[in-house]
Amino acid sequence: MKIKVVKDKKELGNFVSDIVCKIIKEKNEEGEKAVLGLATGTTPIPVYEELVRRYNNGDVDFFNTVTFNLDEYINLPQEDKNSYHTFMNENFIEHININKNNVHIPDGNAEDLEEEVKNYERILQDSGYQDLQILGIGHNGHIGFNEPGEFLLADTGITHLTNETIKANSRFFENINDVPKDAITMGMRTILNADKIVLMITGESKKEIAAKMLKQEGITSKYPATLLYLHPDLTLVLDEEAYNAAQEIINSEV
Ligand code: GLP
């Protein structure tokens, strides 16, 4: 695992955008489409901002890019302000020249959800899986909506949110009871199929999970993100806030 510490959100946006743009350029030079695995949440927002800035500057062209989002709530209308469809449109998709047919976000309102998750995995597989997967992380170590538990999903599937995640995500909803309890998420194998993975951890509030990830003690389904250690090309990017606070925890333990 490579570790990169960035000063702040701006540097995070620059660092991850450099990786994204390099992959798009390389793939386009080979006459292929870059396949990006995308994440929602507040953590990747500086990356989308920087990518949109570079697009407006003429530094990157998204026309031949294919995207797959990690997850989506079940039974939340796509036009709801908290749906991941809305998040992606507002923060990224509407601002770039991507072909909308190449944008994939699980449909949490599909009539047949079992069929939807199988189909999502199949399209991803047919696209050759992600050249790059970017990830944020929950305080409890979830990635996508792969929540801690005895069993983790291998392929894209249906998952139930833990109370901790419902509580964390309730900050965006008027009422905690409005937070959907279920979601579609890429599974652990789906994520690990990516050629390259970038996991971002920012802010002091993530110090416990940042310390856990930095220690690299082992792999456990209690912290799904630890399965990422199995990946040969994983980069953990932390901002100074998360990194310094995590180091304090690590130092206090020895
Ligand atoms: C949600 C998403 C995750 C995201 C996490 C952390 O639960 N499903 O993909 O990583 O929130 O979000 P934030 O970056 O806002 O802390």
Quick structural gist:
The chain is of the alpha/beta class.
Sequence-ordered SSE layout with sheet pairings:
Elements lengths: L1 E5 L2 H21 L4 E5 L6 H12 L8 E5 L1 E3 L10 H8 L11 E2 L8 H14 L5 E4 L21 E4 L2 H7 L12 E4 L2 H5 L4 E5 L5 H9 L18 E6 H14 L1
Parallel strand pairs: 1-10, 2-3, 2-6, 3-5, 6-9, 9-10
Antiparallel strand pairs: 4-8, 7-8
Helix pairs in contact: 1-2, 7-8
The structure holds 2-amino-2-deoxy-6-O-phosphono-alpha-D-glucopyranose.
From the structure above, extract its key features.
254 residues; alpha/beta; seven-stranded parallel β-sheet; three-stranded antiparallel β-sheet; 10 strands; 17% strand; globular; binds 2-amino-2-deoxy-6-O-phosphono-alpha-D-glucopyranose
Q: Can you walk me through this structure?
A:
- The protein has 254 residues and is of the alpha/beta class.
- It contains eight helices and ten strands.
- A seven-stranded parallel sheet has the order 1-10-9-6-2-3-5. It has a three-stranded antiparallel sheet with strand order 4-8-7, covered by helices on one side.
- Helix 7 links the parallel strand 9 and strand 10.
- Helix 1 crosses helix 2.
- The longest helix has 21 residues.
- The structure holds 2-amino-2-deoxy-6-O-phosphono-alpha-D-glucopyranose.
